Amino acid sequence: MKTVKFLALPLLATALVMTGCASRKPANTTDATQFPSGAGTVNTQGLSEDSALNAQNLAGASSKGVTAENKAFLAKRVVHFDYDSSELTNQDYQTLQAHAQFLMANANSRVALTGHTDERGTREYNMALGERRAKAVESFLVTTGVSPTQLEAVSYGKEMPVNAGHDENAWKENRRVEINYEAVPPLLK
């Protein structure tokens, strides 16, 4: 009887950890064509439905920290990664720097950084990789001066692909971190 208890505890602990890794509500995926053309200037391609709606929601948005130079970078809400990597690429630094500038100028802004992977690898490995990717973006923003209280890093692993294909192009799109403004998004008009 003691053997059963000792075997059940690690299984229960593992199950609790795995369910806690993706504690946020999963979203349905969509593309930008589902939104009216006058809904805003944010590029929602490659975002989940909730993220796209969030990006389009300009109610309560702020123009503080939005400059002509960083407007295009603020419109980008997805950072992509190489295969099996959580290293930021040089092309993502300007995007992340623009979001950091905006977040520092708007202390009431809140961002969820959702890490995603392609379909290759085990669920457990991909949950950890998605978390490393989200934490890499979070670390860059905090190092730049953003308050950690404005950020939340979450991993969905391979559970929420934006492209359901099974080739390199699909996998490339799915290896990402989405920058989802949950409060006071940038006003980009």
What can you tell me about this protein's structure?
The protein is of the alpha+beta class and 189 residues long. It has a single domain, classed as 60s Ribosomal Protein L30, Chain: A. 41% of the residues lie in helices and 13% in strands. It is built from six helices and four strands. A four-stranded mixed sheet has the order 1-4-2-3, sandwiched between helices. Strand 2, helix 5 and strand 3 (151-157) form a beta-alpha-beta unit. Helix 4 crosses helix 5 (123-144). It is globular, with a radius of gyration of 18 Å. Residues 3-23 and 25-40 have low confidence and may be disordered.
Summarize the model shown:
The chain has 189 residues and is an alpha+beta fold. The chain has a single domain, classed as 60s Ribosomal Protein L30, Chain: A.
Name the descriptors:
6 helices; OMPA-like_CS; Peptidoglycan-associated lipoprotein; 60s Ribosomal Protein L30, Chain: A; cell cycle; signal; alpha+beta; 189 residues; disordered N terminus; 41% helix; Pal_lipo_C
Strands side by side in the biggest sheet? 1-4-2-3
> What gyration radius follows from the Cα positions, in whole Å?
18 Å
Q: How many individual domains?
A: 1
Q: How would the global form be characterised?
A: globular
For the largest beta-sheet, the strand count, sense and barrel status come to: 4 strands, mixed
Helical segment tally?
Answer: 6
Q: Given the helix and strand composition, which structural class is it?
A: alpha+beta
CATH class division: Alpha Beta
